[in-house]
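S1.2 Input.
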Amino acid sequence: MLGGVTTAHQLRYSYEDYLGALDDSEIRLEYCAGVLYAMAGGTLTHAQLCATVIGVLRQALLGRCVVLSSDAKVRVDASDFAGFPDASVVCGDRSTSRIDASALTNPSVLVEVTSRSTEDYDRGEKLAHYQRLPSLRAVLFVSHRERRVTVTE
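S1.3 Output.
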């Protein structure tokens, strides 16, 4: 699971520090109000599910919207959060954060492929951040345990 500093005294980082850490890191990092979280490495099954979802979305949307991979960072200015969903859909022009030109701020749909270690976080705290995006219409959760997709609006 994603984990921050677990001692009684957590280090706080500026968003600028986070961007520098991303440049220097071999792993993906999420940012929440000054705390950095290392994202768990993916499995082959996770990678296959992500690729399948992206393919299905692209085919279903037929060019009406743009589908982006997990390389697309999403920033939620309202909660000072930045993370990397497994896929993002943008309908219309893309908007980026005023403090991070590489971070999308107007996704219409976000996708999270769950894993044993991140499912609670994805469906809880991370979802709460996503739901603060005014443009967001839905979050799709693709189960790692069974053939099931849950849509949260």
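S1.4 Remarks. The longest helix spans residues 44-61.
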